[in-house]
Write a structure and sequence with these properties.
transmembrane; 6 helices; membrane; DUF998; mainly alpha; transmembrane helix; globular
C-alpha cells in the first residue's frame, strides 16, 4: 500500500520547511552585528557568542538547538520519503549527525577558555584541542558531518539527475564553503593573523545558504519518492 500523493506532498513540504528554517536559525550569528556584543568578528570564532557567561548565550544556544531539533527528524523523513539510493542515503545520515552534533554544540559550551584563531584550549596550537574542550569535539563533528552531507547530496544530484538546484546554486555554495574551510586549515598553521574569524563566518554562512537551497530543491515534484520505488 502506498501513501497518497497528497500526503507525500505535505510531508515533502514540511521537510523542505524544516531544512530552510534550520538554515535561517543557523545564521543567528548575524545578530552579533545587531546586539551590543563586544567581539571582533575578524579574529574571533563564533563559539564565543554562546560561551558560558556571555550575555546573549541563550539566544545563540537556542538557535542551535532549534537547528538540531529540525534536522534530526527532517533527515529521518528524507530517508523515508525519497528513494534509497547510496549517495543520498549517506547524505541523510550525515545530515542527521550534523543535527545531533549541533544540539551537542549548544549543550556543551565553552567553559574554561575561549579559543581564538591562533590559540586553542590546552595551549597555543594544542595537539587535538578536541581532547581538551568538549565543545571543540562537537564542533568538529558538526563541520565534518555537514561536509559529508554536502558532498554526498551533490554527488547524488549529479549522478541520479535529481535536485536540479543543488547541481547549480548548491554546488557554488559548496565550493565557497570549502574554500573558506581550506582558508582556515591552511592559515591556522601560519604565523600572523589571516582573518580566520571572517573565514569561519563565510563557512557557517555557506552552510546556512546550502540548507535553504536544499530545502527548496527537495520540493522538485519530479523527484522520486520511496513510495514509488521499492
Amino acid at each position: 500500500m502506498t501513501d497518497s500523493p497528497k500526503r507525500v506532498r505535505v510531508a515533502v513540504a514540511l521537510l523542505a520547511g524544516a531544512l530552510a528554517l534550520a538554515g535561517l536559525c543557523y545564521s543567528s550569528w548575524i545578530l552579533e552585528f545587531v546586539l551590543p556584543i563586544d567581539i571582533d568578528p575578524v579574529n574571533t570564532f563564533l563559539s564565543e557568542l554562546d560561551a558560558v557567561g556571555k550575555p546573549y548565550r541563550a539566544v545563540f544556544a537556542t538557535a542551535d538547538k532549534i537547528v538540531g531539533v529540525l534536522l534530526v527528524p527532517a533527515a529521518i523523513a528524507g530517508l523515508l520519503l525519497f528513494a534509497r539510493l547510496r549517495w543520498s542515503t549517506i547524505g541523510w545520515v550525515a545530515l542527521l549527525c550534523f543535527g545531533a552534533a549541533t544540539i551537542a554544540d549548544a549543550m556543551l559550551p565553552l567553559h574554561d577558555c575561549v579559543p581564538t584563531p591562533k590559540t586553542t584550549c590546552g595551549g597555543p596550537r594544542a595537539l587535538f584541542p578536541q581532547l581538551h574542550e568538549p565543545h571543540a569535539l562537537s564542533s568538529s563533528l558538526a563541520v565534518c558531518s555537514i561536509a559529508v552531507a554536502g558532498i554526498a547530496f551533490s554527488v547524488a544530484a549529479f549522478r541520479y539527475r535529481r535536485w536540479a538546484l543543488l547541481r547549480t546554486v548548491g554546488t557554488a555554495i559548496l565550493v565557497l564553503g570549502t574554500a573558506a574551510t581550506v582558508w582556515m586549515m591552511v592559515a591556522d598553521d601560519l604565523s600572523g593573523h589571516y582573518a580566520l574569524g571572517i573565514a569561519q563566518r563565510i563557512q557557517v554562512g555557506a552552510i546556512s545558504l546550502w540548507l535553504i537551497v536544499f530545502g527548496i530543491a527537495v520540493t522538485d515534484r519530479s523527484e522520486r519518492v520511496s513510495s514509488a520505488r521499492p
